[in-house]
Specification:
Layout lengths: L2 H9 L2 E2 L7 E6 L5 H8 L6 E4 L26 H11 L16 E2 L2 E5 L6 H7 L5 E5 L2 H10 L6 H6 L2 H8 L3 H5 L4 H19 L6 E4 H6 L1 H12 L7 H5 L17 H4 L13 H13 L16 H4 L4 H16 L2
Parallel strand pairs: 1-4, 2-5, 2-6, 3-5, 6-7
Length: 331
């Protein structure tokens, strides 16, 4: 793209609809393929693309948020609510946020963010008319991709230092998380927390759950499942965007926006060639602690009934936590 045009589209565009409900949210863990999926969703350039706006270290409006911020659904703190309104209403601009925007006159926004999972239910409560898509990808693929980029995981700093998060969800797992002795284990624990909390808080009507692997195997079918939900339409031209790798793709095995046209590789299960059987076994053990083995196991694809069983009923969450606490105390 011409540099002058790119500068206009990323700095001088017009976003004229200040209604937060004009936003669509794509939420996921980092390195789950969301940049590619967001481009596919926006293949007609219907949306202003907003890339990870809840980044507290770059976006002044979001300074109150921390990395992996947990917010209880009934929290009404202005320090969180006001910045969220500003972001979703499109009233914040930044080179980071607008780096992938390609639309000049904007009426709707596609907000793609890897930092919102732990306050996803809070967003659903406070902005109930915003369509939310939650994207998941196999934990081993996510962990491998993060480690390849040296995304070191400090479980204490990110999760265990948040008292409300520990009290509400992590108390039964805190001991195991603190004892995680390898980077692989820490990355798998992080994936579990990032997905366990929204699945325990949300109900199917809150979000549309989709899997990266399904997108790779049958992207047009997967898009068709939530075209009405997002109020978008898809035609044959979407195939071109499906075959275009993400701007964040790595040159070696990763799967983030990967295209078989580019690599000839298995975008769904290629990670198995770089992960040992022992690592896979340990990953499944950790995933099972959180009850998320109902979604993913040793195989690359989600389980056949994963979408139907993914959300964790409140009574089941309570009973599972009680059982874990009893095991931890030897009762």
């Amino acid at each position: 793209m011409n540099p002058v045009v790119r500068n206009i589209l990323t700095k001088h565009f017009i976003d004229s609809n200040g209604d937060p409900n004009a936003a669509v949210l794509l939420a996921c863990s980092g390195r789950s393929g969301s940049t590619w999926v967001s481009r596919v969703i926006n293949y007609r350039n219907d949306f202003r693309m907003m890339f990870e706006p809840f980044r507290e270290d770059l976006i002044p409006e979001c300074i109150a948020f921390r990395l992996n911020q947990y917010i209880r659904p009934n929290d009404r703190s202005p320090e969180f609510l006001q910045p969220a309104k500003v972001v979703l209403a499109g009233r914040v601009r930044h080179d980071w946020i607008d780096r992938y925007n390609r639309r000049f006159f904007c009426q709707r926004r596609l907000v793609k963010d890897i930092r919102v999972n732990l306050f996803l239910k809070w967003l659903c409560v406070n902005f109930p008319h915003i369509p939310v898509v939650m994207l998941m990808r196999h934990p081993c693929a996510v962990a491998l991709s993060r480690m390849a980029l040296s995304w070191d995981m400090d479980l204490q700093a990110r999760f265990l230092s948040q008292p409300a998060l520990v009290e509400d969800y992590l108390a039964p797992f805190a001991g195991e998380m603190a004892r995680a002795g390898t980077e692989w284990e820490r990355q798998i624990f992080a994936w579990c927390v990032e997905n366990y909390v929204p699945l325990a808080q949300c109900v199917p009507n809150d979000v549309h759950l989709t899997f990266y692997e399904d997108f790779c195997r049958a992207p047009e079918a997967e898009l068709g499942k939530f075209a009405g939900f997002l109020r978008v339409r898809f035609d044959d031209h979407v195939r071109k965007e499906i075959a275009t790798p993400s701007q964040t793709v790595r040159t070696n095995l990763d799967g983030q926006g990967y295209s078989s046209i580019v690599s000839g590789d298995d975008v769904v299960g290629g990670w198995r060639r770089e992960v040992s059987p022992q690592q896979i076994k340990r990953a499944v053990e950790i995933v099972r602690m959180f009850g998320l083995d109902r979604i993913y196991g040793e195989e690359p694809m989600p389980l056949p009934d994963a979408k139907e069983r993914a959300f964790i009923p409140a009574d089941q969450h309570s009973s599972m936590n009680a059982g874990l606490r009893s095991s931890a105390t030897g009762e």
